[in-house]
């Protein structure tokens, strides 16, 4: 029994020595590589077991390669739709909704600017306006109604004056015609009265 166990113990001892030499060789090779190539920053990690505390293990913080995001058919469709020849985003996409909101805001801004400019012009034209927009609009409505009433009154006045003027002109024309007729009659009578006196002068 003692003769059989001795070779086994020697074989185990030889394997341990060989494993230790292999570990030392690997360690020296790592040191040589670390001197040649700059290693990234490492953080020592203390082992939990007492046996591992003798040889602290270092974990290198090498950055992991960034894995590309999985490409789905929907993503490919969105990319192809966003690069259409027309340059417009596809209907229903986020870019389409964003552009639609921006266009709506721009149209609304222009509409407000136009309204404000019109109200400012009304404030300059209509007398007695306040700075409040509502007051300016109310005063403008009252002023327009007043102008319409004045216009109607002026039209009525001008129509009556024109009617009276036309009537006076017609009466004057009638009087002129009567005077012309009377003048012609008087000329005829005058000639008749002067006729016998002229004949007497000729005979004498």
What is the strand arrangement across the widest sheet? 1-2
Total strands: the figure is 2
> Number of helical runs?
4
Using the CA coordinates, give the radius of gyration: 61 Å
Structural class: mainly alpha
The biggest beta sheet is recorded as: 2 strands, antiparallel
Query: What is the oligomeric state here?
Result: single chain
**DSSP helix fraction:** over 70%
Q: Give the DSSP E fraction (strand runs of 2 or more residues).
A: under 5%
Plain-language structure description:
With 204 residues, this protein is mainly alpha-helical. It is built from 4 helices and 2 strands; from the N terminus they run αββααα. It has a two-stranded antiparallel ribbon with strand order 1-2. It is rod-shaped and about 200 Å long. This is BHLH domain-containing protein. Keywords: DNA-binding, Nucleus.
Describe the SSE topology.
Blueprint: H1 2-36, E1 42-45, E2 57-60, H2 73-82, H3 94-125, H4 133-203
Antiparallel strand pairs: 1-2
In short:
The chain has helices at residues 2-36, 73-82, 94-125, 133-203; strands spanning 42-45, 57-60. It has 204 residues and is mainly alpha-helical.
List keywords for this structure.
204 residues; mainly alpha; two-stranded antiparallel sheet; 4 helices; 2 strands; 73% helix; rod-shaped
């Amino acid at each position: 029994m003692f003769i059989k166990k001795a070779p086994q113990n020697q074989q185990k001892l030889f394997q341990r020595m060989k494993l230790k030499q292999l570990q030392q060789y690997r360690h020296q090779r790592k040191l040589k590589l670390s001197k040649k190539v700059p290693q990234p920053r490492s953080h020592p990690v203390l082992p939990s077991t007492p046996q591992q505390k003798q040889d602290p293990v270092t974990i290198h913080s090498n950055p992991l390669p960034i894995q590309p995001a999985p490409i789905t058919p929907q993503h490919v469709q969105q990319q192809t739709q966003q690069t259409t020849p027309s340059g417009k985003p596809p209907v229903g996409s986020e870019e389409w909704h964003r552009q639609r909101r921006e266009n709506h805001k721009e149209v609304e801004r222009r509409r407000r600017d136009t309204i404000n400019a019109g109200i400012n012009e009304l404030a300059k034209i209509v007398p007695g306006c306040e700075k409040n927009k509502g007051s300016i609009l109310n005063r403008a409505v009252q002023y327009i109604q007043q102008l319409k009433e004045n216009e109607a009154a002026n039209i009525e006045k001008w129509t009556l004056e024109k009617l009276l003027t036309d009537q006076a002109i017609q009466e004057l024309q009638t009087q002129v015609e009567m005077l012309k007729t009377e003048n012609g009659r008087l000329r005829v009578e005058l000639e008749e009265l002067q006729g016998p006196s002229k004949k007497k002068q000729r005979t004498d």
